[in-house]
Design goal:
It contains ten helices and nine strands. By secondary structure, the protein is of the alpha/beta class. A six-stranded parallel sheet has the order 1-4-3-2-5-6, sandwiched between helices. It has a three-stranded antiparallel sheet with strand order 7-8-9. It binds adenosine monophosphate (AMP).
């Protein structure tokens, strides 16, 4: 396994694999890896002859009052996990290696980014698109793997790939959950024992939404009101950022539930902002 902070080394290693006609799979991450990340790596390993993982906590996708400084980092453990998965290449850039002092070009998606997390985290998806575009240009993968955990992010990246003619395929893999249903996330490390229990309200509220929709309720307002009620009951100190029922393609809110919809929410458990989502029909 090659581990490098150098863009040139990564380009050369990926280029060699390409020359050997190996399919290049790429999994961009911010590290503090868990089974969710590893599910993407396993999918890449299955489908590609050469697997690259990037680990980079991207400063430009964090707002000024967000957790960039405290974001969990554990490179040694990540490296061990990736070695065990048979990864070929880890790209582990420094901030200055990615962003020159005079860096002044950004990539911005302006439609899907208006909703859900885009509303409460201004500039977040601009930071994500910019870093992912750079990573795509460096690695030049054939397939890039993203998680449904960050549904909006995956849709925005797909749009970027289409609109900017990146020559690669984006695959979105299912959400990996803990046994009790909590979506795995690097940020779960922030939770105290009590908060860990409260955090389950996100999944429980999605399960309730799913049950209601299956039961024939088609008013989004009714579903959202009941999700809010469940969260207030199960985790009275949780602070809801948003709960929305949206069109899974455009991410616009829907009033009447017809066909497939996405239920998505962001909730603060203490200081930790958690997100989750579920496709409902
Ligand atoms: P992150 O390190 O949080 O930026 O995540 C890197 C990639 O892993 C993104 O494509 C995420 O959507 C994906 N991911 C994170 N958590 C999960 C999970 N629980 N299940 C599946 N994919 C995940």
């Amino acid at each position: 396994m090659i581990v490098s902070r150098s863009i040139n080394t990564i380009r050369t290693a990926a280029g060699k694999a390409r020359k050997k006609s190996k399919r290049i799979g790429f999994v961009p991450t911010m590290g503090a890896l868990h089974k969710g990340h590893l599910s993407l790596v396993k999918a890449a390993r299955k489908e590609c002859g050469f697997v690259t993982v990037s680990i980079f906590v991207n400063p430009i996708q964090f707002g000024p009052r967000e957790d960039f400084r405290s974001y969990p980092r554990n490179f040694k453990k990540d490296e061990m996990l990736l070695e065990a998965e048979g990864v070929d290449l880890i790209f582990y850039p420094s901030i200055s290696g990615m962003y020159d002092r005079d860096f002044s070009v950004y990539v911005e998606e302006i439609s899907l980014s208006r909703y859900l997390c885009g509303k409460s985290r201004p500039g977040h998806f601009r930071g994500v698109c910019t870093v992912v575009a750079k990573l795509f240009n460096i690695v030049q993968p054939d397939i890039a793997y993203f998680g449904q955990k960050d549904y909006q992010q995956a849709q925005i990246i797909k749009r970027m790939v289409k609109d900017l003619n990146f020559s690669l395929k984006v695959k979105v893999m299912p959400i990996v959950r803990e046994k009790d249903g909590l979506a795995m996330s690097s940020r779960n490390k922030y939770l105290s024992i009590k908060e860990r229990k409260d955090a389950l309200c996100l999944y429980n509220s999605l399960m309730l939404a799913s049950k209601m929709v299956k039961g024939g309720i088609c008013s989004s307002a009714t579903v959202v009101a009941n999700m809010k009620k469940l969260i207030r009951n199960q985790a009275p100190y949780a602070r809801i950022d948003y709960i929305n029922i949206v069109n899974p393609g455009t991410l616009e809110e829907v009033k009447k539930i017809k066909g497939k919809v996405l239920a998505a929410l962001a909730v603060y458990i203490g200081k930790t902002r958690l997100i989750d989502n579920m496709l409902l029909r």
